[in-house]
């Protein structure tokens, strides 16, 4: 794809992401006009509007965008590695492993970077378990890998249930909302944003090699790609992206499944375009989902994971039907 043609959809997706973020900070229990929102963003509005936008809504919106971008890029990388459009951090158990690691740290009274490190360890352990069990003594197949991921995810779900059963009662509401995916208490979004930017900068130079790897490891090796280090890089990178997304906003499913699939239908399968497009499209999708979660039963709020599941489950079933 020529550079000009590749650049055009990325610009459109960036504008879409910007529009969804402006909509998100404008909509809520106290609605703001577009003029009031822009004035608050530039620091020239009333003090009440500035507090509402800059301190309450904008951090949540940025956290949702960064989380969606991380999950979509992680899903796209897993789909390249497995050559399977059904691959997704949530379906393969990475999100469950990260959630267990993060919850263990929280129950131990830890916080900050230690929680992220624990989530990364859980996601990486889940990745190794899924691929190790699916591989066995022979080569894995997409259906075998998918089944193993579903079983591992169910195992992590059982561990999470046990942790909830023994957790202090006062912590249960927050833990349950966090497990369903909730960006209301995401905190600072900047670590997730920085990681998303670094991930895009690192994978773009490897786009050509990823295109070859998507055709199979044997063909990639024959064409000069160092397959094993690249596969391990995808393992570790997808685990880190998933862990950061989970520690930012909890366990949110199906973003890494829906976004790469839809963008491939629209833009083709060139990873040099798809991966940055996933970062923008995933962010825009989760911002829209979080906006819906805030307003659909206002003044009450839904966990954003409920909205993404309502979008993702039909898409997953459709892809499963098509793969027969």
UniProtKB/TrEMBL annotation:
Q: Which CDD domains match?
A: TM_ABC_iron-siderophores_like (cd06550)
Which key words are in the record?
Cell membrane, Membrane, Transmembrane, Transmembrane helix, Transport
Q: Which Pfam families match?
A: FecCD
- Where is it chiefly localized? membrane
The protein's location, in the record's own words, is:
Cell membrane
- Transport: is it a keyword of this entry? yes
Q: Which InterPro entries match?
A: ABC_BtuC-like, ABC_transptr_permease_BtuC
Name assigned to this protein: Iron ABC transporter
